[in-house]
């Protein structure tokens, strides 16, 4: 166990060990997202280790020599994967089986035995390599759908310490999750964790119902679930952002320059903004279908609004993402072709990565931000948009009822992204909304975004994990 100098044994805190597919960065120079900031804070405070994939491939793969970076009391340790490991574990099982399945897209799910085998192997290998670096006194916190089996593998290798898991994306209803050939094994493996965290009550309920109906388990008080001799806690921890920093970014010179550039480029039009990885879960097609309907149903808006969609390309090696890109570009081309004039183009697309400050400037310039996922664990863009607004003239958030953020951001204009007419009507309402109403809604949301930050989320999870170790049958499988 690591001990900070000057600590008495009574004051010792367990070292934090974070495991996620990609690690870091530890220092935020305007690049890190909310998750990295929250975790980096906690790691720095307690001292710790962040373990994951280097992002590189090599012949040795998961048996490669670990790369270590040390910053103060925190070590970042990463290992490589082989090309077949990346193809099977990451591009295959994680991104073509689990991602669509957990986002309720059975139509896009691809299962194959080889990628499932690779996923299990990589989870076992990561556990084996992690064991070289941890002891039972550590608090191990595993992240996301890449590592459902990792905790169980650690237990098999003899790890007896406290073990937590947080799922950043939704958990689909039991009837749907059951379509995964490895569904029962996977949920059994999740029961090796002492604490399993979800973004929303809905996700937690879906997991607990799977345990109850498919594995003959029981729901118990205080968010405990019992299956056979396993007794674990399944709780909700909605993730937040580093709101203070984001508000500072939004007030920076770089943000102001970007906001001014955006305003200049669109003349007197009202800016509507969307910011999403180009992913089918984000409802980008439905959003632009709604925007097209706005221009059809409210023709006074033609020439008076402009859509700026920031859509960095994502998972371009996966066929479904290539198809989505084609569909998206086709739709935007059609809208521009239909409605553009010599002096006005309705939709602009940017696929480049942006600094946090530049992004904050775009949010701040927006009159409306559209966050319309068909299903989303939380959606940090919604929270970043709120944090970046200027109190004197805040923009309006249009938010899908299927985003996890909807539970907290109830004062947004809530839409069903599948209902095109309603999306168009919400856009019209947002564009016409008087300043006073915009301010009222924004203040209510700002308070929540600044209260439930990334640091609070992190602290709540770690506290619950520390307590969970005391559950009588909470350890061992
Ligand atoms: P994501 O699916 O990646 O996260 P989201 O929560 O919206 O979705 O976060 C995206 C992040 O990327 C935001 O911080 C945004 O600022 C950033 N970003 C987008 N475009 C960018 C660009 N061009 N340049 C730089 N940064 C850009 C998953 C889940 C979510 C969950 C998060 C956190 O799918 O549901 O909210 O994890 O748990």
Describe the fold and architecture.
By secondary structure, the protein is an alpha/beta fold. The relative contact order is 0.12. The protein has two domains: 16-240 and 455-467, Glycogen Phosphorylase B (Rossmann fold, 3-Layer(aba) Sandwich), CATH 3.40.50.2000; 244-451, Glycogen Phosphorylase B (Rossmann fold, 3-Layer(aba) Sandwich). Residues 1-10 and 470-477 have low confidence and may be disordered. The strands form two sheets. It has a ten-stranded mixed β-sheet with strand order 3-4-2-1-5-6-7-10-9-8, with helices on both faces. It has 16 helices and 16 strands. 43% of the residues lie in helices and 18% in strands. Helix 1 crosses helix 16 and helix 10 (284-297) packs across helix 14. The longest helix has 21 residues, at 319-339. It starts with 15 loop residues before the first strand and ends in a 9-residue tail after the last helix. Helix 11 links the parallel strand 12 and strand 13. The radius of gyration is 23 Å and the shape is globular. It binds adenosine-5'-diphosphate-glucose.
- Please identify the structural class as seen in this structure: alpha/beta
Q: How many helical stretches? A: 16
Q: Which strands sit side by side, in order, in the main sheet?
A: 3-4-2-1-5-6-7-10-9-8
Main sheet, how many strands, which sense, barrel?
10 strands, mixed
Instruction: Report how far the terminal alpha carbons are from each other.
Output: 24 Å
Gyration radius, rounded: 23 Å
Taken from the alpha-carbon principal axes, the silhouette is globular
At the first level of CATH, the class of the largest domain is Alpha Beta
How many extended strands? 16
Bound molecules: adenosine-5'-diphosphate-glucose
Just name the CATH architecture of the largest domain.
3-Layer(aba) Sandwich
- β-sheet strand percentage: 15-25%
What would the average pLDDT be, to the nearest integer? 93
CATH T-level topology of the largest domain: Rossmann fold
